[in-house]
Amino acid sequence: MVGVSEMGAVKPLLAAAAGRRPERRPVWFMRQAGRSLPEYRALRADRGMLEACFDPAMVTEITLQPVRRHDTDGAILFSDIVVPLKAAGIDLDIVAGTGPVIAHPVRTAADVAAIARLEPDAVGAVAAAVSMLRAELDPTPTALIGFAGAPFTLASYLIEGGPSRHYAHTKAMMYGNPELWHDLMGRLVDITVTFLRVQIQAGVQAVQLFDSWAGMLSRRDYEQYVAPHSTRVFAELDGAGAGGAAIPRIHFGVGTGELLVPMARVGADVVGVDWRVPLQEAIGRIGPGPALQGNLDPTVLFAGDEVIAAHVARVIDDADHAIAAGARGHIFNLGHGVLPDTDPDTITRVVDLVHSA
Ligand SMILES: Cc1c2[nH]c(c1CCC(=O)O)Cc1[nH]c(c(CCC(=O)O)c1C)Cc1[nH]c(c(CCC(=O)O)c1C)Cc1[nH]c(c(C)c1CCC(=O)O)C2
What we know:
Layout: H1 12-17, H2 38-44, H3 49-53, H4 56-70, E1 74-76, H5 83-87, E2 92-95, E3 99-102, H6 109-113, H7 124-137, E4 143-149, H8 151-160, H9 168-176, H10 178-202, E5 206-210, H11 219-235, E6 249-252, H12 260-265, E7 270-272, H13 279-286, E8 291-296, H14 305-324, E9 330-334, H15 344-356
Parallel strand pairs: 1-4, 4-5, 5-6, 6-7, 7-8, 8-9
Antiparallel strand pairs: 2-3
Helix pairs in contact: 4-7, 7-10, 8-10, 9-10, 10-11, 13-14, 14-15
The structure holds coproporphyrinogen III.
The site of coproporphyrinogen III (CP3) has 23 residues, from strand 3.
């Protein structure tokens, strides 16, 4: 049965997202798979990042590595936000230490018109990995989380051509040519929805939409240029689970304290909060309803056991206040991804602290 562990209990992460009482407080970490783990570095030593993302056995193994090591309640599918763009035919690579690099940045109407739809078969390797992962994870308490980049964050990589500090080209198109901007965003919604539907049909049990860089926008700009598109992503996933079941939708961005209200409104069941806003304050801004995910500062993991324990306890206390103020539940996480130099034993200790709190 979906979402049910060996002991017959609902998986803690799915219970928390649905407003039910989890057997233990669920915890997972953004970027839990990856360079913090020696077993990941060994596997990836002679394989490119994108090559690994299209190899179902590699995806399965890398996804499971942090679950085995840390006993996390979430297994985040090993992939990348640019995987569906690559599969839709966009020439790009993921460069170690840099991130996604786009061969021909998208700047003109012709560039936008050339962005094709994603054929579900082009991400068949991802679907195959999801099936393999469900077989491994079903007897455990761990839920499988799929993900995609949100249209704004994907657009920012496509337009800038790579990582950016100021997003000047992105904003220039958004402000200067809104019609072209909305055309591009509409195409990215279609790609994102296809990618997430493939994952859901193959068996992911929750999805996270990463709008990592949305925090660069004012609330007014977010509502005008981004919210309608992210709303469509979430709306098109309504009842997309097996037999029309609802799949919990997590919405996350960095530096989004000013955007928590519109980011919740686009249709999130769980709102991811970075470390800047205490969780009870986040729910105060959003209003009662969604569950919250977060929000330990990833750099705290370098500060030593005593400091870490105090910060973990504070996040849990904040979360309990948030629940008293109307949050449906809490999923413990960092406020952003695990930094590559993090000692993996520290992460295991945080999981133990959260589970025993
Ligand atoms: C913005 C973004 C990207 N990718 C992603 C986001 C949104 C999350 C966020 O805000 O951090 C999402 C992502 N990327 C990766 C995952 C896998 C699952 C996990 O979280 O464990 C997830 C969820 C693997 C990855 N994606 C990447 C790596 C490192 C590549 C490597 O190991 O060589 C991994 C494990 C590459 C990548 N891809 C991207 C960046 C910024 C980088 C890092 C560049 C670097 O520091 O090398 C784009």
